[in-house]
Specification:
Layout lengths: L11 H5 L10 E5 L33 E5 L6 E2 L3 H18 L3 H10 L3 H14 L7 H9 L23 E2 L2 E5 L4 H16 L3 H9 L3 H4 L2 H16 L10 H7 L5 H14 L9 H10 L4 E3 L8 E3 L4 H18 L7 H9 L5 H13 L3 H8 L20 H20 L1
Antiparallel strand pairs: 1-2, 2-3, 4-5, 6-7
Helix pairs in contact: 2-4, 3-4, 4-6, 5-6, 6-9, 7-9, 9-11, 10-11, 11-13, 12-13, 13-15, 14-15, 15-17, 16-17
The chain binds zinc ion (2 copies).
Length: about 425
């Protein structure tokens, strides 16, 4: 048990080691969605007691992911940014006492039970840079590791404590989770570290998906793509030049988190000037995302399939697409029509209007912008559900004109 001498301090282990429970077990992401009251469950451990975060003291709703002791102790920490930062900090302090060299960090990655300590170890490896390249095989294994949220001694029984099936993303219960947030963040961190250690080969393998174990796993694809995005952020986007087309394909991936990651990566890499090959994919994706439904092929029943569950994610995706097109300049002129419709249609955020106007200007579609300065409501197509569409409000019309006008003026000054 780590550092038992802390237990003799007044604050105890709980006071000095926030990332462990009072008994020194690691706090890892868990959900208590299926943790229930009933036979042989002590009252203190059942759901008649609401769990509070031990740091901020807020209640944690029963189905939310939290950091908890898997051995059954009662400590819980919520995943709010503040609390998450505090526990990670505490894990970093524990790691700093024990492990300093690359070899020691590798051992920690292999043997440590606490996800937070492993996360701290990955952070240290990243800071060491290329001198930590010997850790690549371990990092690769961690990135591909399959986390089973059902792997628990109650597996298959009604009292399984750790169940992702009824678990929601904190703050937003609209879409199902593939992985608890903490595990997902760890995977992404590992992928980012691999990218910064100049091991894009590993990310490439995960993306191209030649390995059948990896091919069907969206969480691995997402992490690999976000690793490439980090290259862009660090101003090393050109190292991902040979993967641009693969990223373009990922824009129409069947899983929305992967699509969001791909758009983000292209946006981050675009300033390096290597993303021209992605232009047709970006235009296609922008056109495609106007509709939220795909028709299934006849063989599968021909019913509409919803493409986006995550409305906020979809907005981010579209903004990233437009920003990436904006960086492409003249080679994005095929995007003029969908961009103009983003600028002028009713249900758009103002961030999107301004981004679309900017992208139109950068791609040289000045005619579209000029048209938009005199924008007025044009009745769209009618259908049986909306026989008489409402006219656009004046504030929307004003905003479209203002965005177009301001953007035009700005580029004519240049
Ligand atoms: Zn908290
Ligand atoms: Zn415990």
């Amino acid at each position: 048990m780590p550092q038992m001498h802390d237990a003799t301090h007044a604050a105890g282990v709980a006071g000095t080691q926030l990332h462990r429970c009072v008994k020194g077990h690691p706090l890892n992401p868990v959900s208590m969605a299926a943790w229930q009251e009933g036979w042989s469950v002590p009252r203190t451990q059942s759901f008649s007691q609401v769990r509070k975060c031990k740091i901020c003291k807020h209640d944690i709703p029963r189905n939310w992911v939290r950091l908890g002791c898997e051995k059954g102790c009662q400590d819980s920490v919520c995943l709010n940014l503040n609390c998450a930062a505090k526990v990670l900090d505490s894990a970093k302090r524990e790691l700093a006492v024990k492990h300093r060299t690359v070899a020691e960090l590798e051992t920690a990655l292999l043997e440590e039970e606490s996800l937070l300590v492993k996360e701290a170890a990955v952070d240290s490896l990243r800071e060491l840079g290329t001198s930590a390249q010997s850790a690549t095989p371990i990092l690769e294994k961690l990135m591909l590791k399959e986390i089973s949220h059902k792997d628990d001694r109650f597996q298959g029984t009604s009292s399984s404590r750790n169940s992702i099936r009824h678990t929601f993303l904190a703050n937003d219960g609209t879409h199902p989770l593939l992985e608890y947030q903490g595990c997902r963040a760890f995977r992404v961190k590992v992928a980012v570290t691999l990218a910064l250690l100049r091991e894009t080969r590993v990310l490439e393998d995960a993306l191209l998906g030649d390995d059948p174990d990896v091919a069907g796993r969206p969480e691995v694809r997402e992490a690999a793509i976000l690793g490439l995005a980090e290259l862009g952020v660090q101003g090393r986007g050109s190292e991902a030049a040979h993967l641009i087309e693969r990223l373009g394909l990922a824009l129409s991936d069947e899983v929305e988190t992967v699509r969001i990651a791909a758009a983000h990566a292209l946006r981050c890499i675009a300033p390096a000037g290597v993303t021209e090959a992605a232009a047709p994919f970006l235009v296609e994706a922008l056109r495609d995302s106007e509709e939220n439904y795909n028709m299934a092929p006849e063989s599968m029943g021909g019913m509409p399939i919803r493409k986006w569950q995550d409305a906020e994610g979809r907005r981010l995706f579209e903004l990233d697409l437009v920003a990436a097109l904006s960086c492409l300049g003249a080679s994005a002129n095929a995007a003029a029509e969908p961009l103009a419709s983003r600028l002028a249609s009713t249900k758009q955020t103002s961030a999107m209007r301004w981004a679309a106007a900017e992208a139109l200007a950068q791609s040289g579609a000045l005619e579209e912008l000029r048209k938009a300065t005199e924008h007025c409501h044009r009745p769209g197509k009618t259908d049986i559900l909306h026989p008489r569409p409402k006219p656009q409000s004046t504030s929307v019309i004003e905003e479209v004109r203002r965005a177009a006008q301001t953007t035009l003026e700005r580029i004519s000054v240049k």
